Please model this.
Amino acid sequence: MSELLTERSGRVAAARKLVRRAGRDAAGLFLAEGRQAVAEALADPDGAVEVFATEAAATAHRDLLAATAVPVRLVTDKAAAGLSETVTPQGLVAVCALRDVPAGDVLAAPPALAVALAELADPGNAGTVLRTADACGAGAVVFGAGSADPYGGKAVRSSAGSLFHVDVVRGVPLAEFLPAWRAAGGTVLAADGGGEVALDEAADAGGLDGPVLWLFGQRGPRRPRRPRRAGRRPGAHPDARPRREPQPRRGRRDLPLHDPARPALTGTFGTESPGRGGTSGTESSRRGGTFGTGSP
Model:
């Protein structure tokens, strides 16, 4: 390990530029933070270029760092925070080489299973798809134009190291890639609740035998709503019963103000206070009026 580097050192300043996509594309490098991502990067011969670690992280992960030939550089806590995109930096960051593969290489030898992302802009979801594709044995993940950058901090963390297990194709127009995939003998599938064929039916028909590419994307526009039946309130379930019209309430409050069949109820209301002379003084100090259904 080297001497302690601060946030002003040249190596740390160069690595800090990799937090932005423009810096990553210009340098051909990206950052992987945390033990899981760093361990996967170190396990790949073409993965990590160098590792930055705080003194506490170097002590906590001594077994991992002692077994690698990749240069490990000690940095201050402030320097490590500048390389992190999280609220609580983990103090362990690897500088890794981009894993981009030309689309032509994937089409020349299509893997048995691949995934394509159509304008999937959320980096957390992109990392989740990477992790799922790796777990299912996919050989490549194609990030179509308009999709999130798989080398951003959130996507790398969400992939949990799976980014180092699959080939990555970035920025390819899917309008051109999908026909080329089919021309290479592959099948393109997308899951949809209103799809024409069930998955088991496609498997029985041999639709999953050749190279298969699963297409994922943002949530599409809503399906057209069914015409609303008469009497059904907006927003209710299509099969819901029509809402019953409210019935008039019955009770005292619905009786007319003057019912000839009922005796008139009369009286006065107000306040009384002693008069100036100490008497009740009802005529001079009473304020109020009448109440009830009769007349005063």
